[in-house]
Amino acid sequence: MFDGKKRRSYADVAKTRLLRVIKTETQYEAASKEITRLLRRQPLGRLEEDYLETLAILVEQYEDQHYPIDTTHISPLESLKNLLADQGLSRADLGRLLGNVRIGSEIMTGKRQLTPEQAEILSKRFKLHPDFFLKRL
After folding, report:
1. What is the model's pTM?
2. Helix (H), strand (E) at residue 9
3. Quick one: three-class SS letters along 22-55?
4. What phi and psi values does residue 66 have, to the nearest 5 degrees?
5. Taking 70 as the threshold, does the pLDDT of residue 74 lie above it?
6. In whole angstroms, what is the distance from residue 65 CA to residue 62 CA?
7. Where are the alpha helices (DSSP H) in 6-128?
8. Range of the domain at 45
9. Cβ neighbours of residue 17 under 8 Å, at least 6 residues apart?
10. Domain total of the chain
11. What are the tens digits of pLDDT across the range 16-65?
12. Do 106 and 112 form a contact (C-beta atoms < 8 A)?
């Protein structure tokens, strides 16, 4: 698809693999397989990365509509702990991100809540909305 020796424009690539809104389970499964195939082919070229990113957005939109995940029962602290674990980060790493190692430990033990300013710092680092890190109603 993208492996030719000459450089192709995104328009050329789109002619062979047109990206469309995913509307059916069959389309969803095919898109998911394509994502897996591309991820296994690392490293990717710029066009492949653009294609993969766009396809992932379309899959995410489909999943949000058809497989919503209720996270209201999960506390922001639990979400933060899971996020840090997934990223291989420690309490000290959290503290360094926030400017004070002690604060990271206090947040992780539940002695202190994140402030909106700290949530903003984490949202930029992890590319998530600040509300992800704040108390859920």
Report:
1. 0.51
2. none
3. CCCHHHHHHHHHHHHHHHHCCCCCHHHHHHHHHH
4. -105, -20
5. yes
6. 5
7. 10-16, 25-40, 46-66, 76-87, 91-98, 101-108, 116-126
8. 10-66
9. 1, 51
10. 2
11. 667 889 999 999 999 999 889 888 887 878 888 888 899 999 999 999 89
12. yes
- Token pair in block for residue 108: 């992780």
Residue 71 inside a domain? The answer is no
CB atoms within 10 A of CB 137: 4
Number of CB atoms found within 10 A of residue 58's CB: 17
Q: Which CATH number covers residue 83?
A: 1.10.260.40
For residue 5, is it within any domain?
no
CA distance 131 to 116: 8
Residues 61 and 21: beta-carbon distance below 8 Å: yes
